[in-house]
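Here is one chain, start to finish.
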Amino acid sequence: MLYGNDRKRMRQVFFEAWRKHRQNEILEPLERRIVAVIRQHPEYHALLERPEAHLEEDFAPEQGVTNPFLHMGMHLGIAEQLAADMPPGIRDLYQRLTARRGDAHAAEHEIMECLGETLWLAQRAGAEPDPVHYLTCLRKRLGQSM
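Its structure:
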């Protein structure tokens, strides 16, 4: 329902989940997870209430704009990684980052920095994301060597 390369369809899932939430309709399990992420990001609420204006919008980093769908999608991906502890050890690193930051959402943003870097390196190399690099980046954020 959420995964794939169809940008428009993936965005529609976010728009629809938010619409259903606002209208007190029953949400599917994935929609509940999406709404939980959206609720943590009030800066995106107005955008999500205007799908016709933002469905096709490009959010170019060169323009200093964060892509809200990528950002929220990364939160969802991190939640899945934590639930499965994949790569192995990420859950422990997350718990330690959360304790250090005192805020689970802030810890996810730290993880997001490492995830983004890892994905960028993989894309640049035409390879799969390197879980060793990913976990090493997180350990460095905790001040650990390795």
